[in-house]
What does this fold into?
Amino acid sequence: MKTRKAYAKDLACIHHVGFGDFARDSAPGLLELLHAARLDGGRVVDLGCGSGIWAAALLHAGYGVTGLDPSSAMLALARQVAFGARFVRASAYDFVFPACDAVTALGEVLSYVPPGAKTAPSLSRLFRRIAGALRPGGLLVFDLIVTGKRRPIIYRTWRSDGDWAIVADVTEQPARRRLVREITTFRRVGARYRRSHETHVVRVCSRAAIERMLRQAGFSVRVLRRYGAARLAPRRLAFIARKTRHTP
It folds into this structure.
């Protein structure tokens, strides 16, 4: 079965049980970033919140959380994992941001091109909207796939457990500045396995362009290759953007 949705029920479930380590391992380093910025409480908006693992860590640390995700299946999981957070089914590009102290977008969330979209939404416009919602000194933290000088990314990977398996074929298209993941899942439903397929398209950005857009939106920027002890995959960078007092 093919779907144009991103993270329908089967992939959402597999991602939560099989790939939640990224959010769990990154949480201590992310909390350190918030504390270092003297953001020891307040409201965090988590874009592409997925199954709510990071949201749960924020709640436990005393933050209020608003989580966004376009996947209803992911949100159903998040409401169980992070009871007490507010969750909204929405795209970051359409959402009206409330006043907040930090915005996060973990796991290449801002790289994703919405299913069916011909072009990627404007990051520059999104950064300006986030800057307008953040209080002075607030943080925007996210990671993206960036361009590289080496050969294009092309590989197949797979993983399985007792009740599920996943196969992903990944192909970078440098001329189009994008990467395509063809993802096939097999999930046990009763006595049989259900096969599903999703195609995910993600933009590939240059580090310089992202830093320029952030500064134009009123942020100071630094770039990391890890969240604390959790190292990002090759060609992924974390952007730590702090709102200056005077936003253009």
About this structure: The mean pLDDT is 94. The CA atoms of residues 70 and 90 lie 5 Å apart.
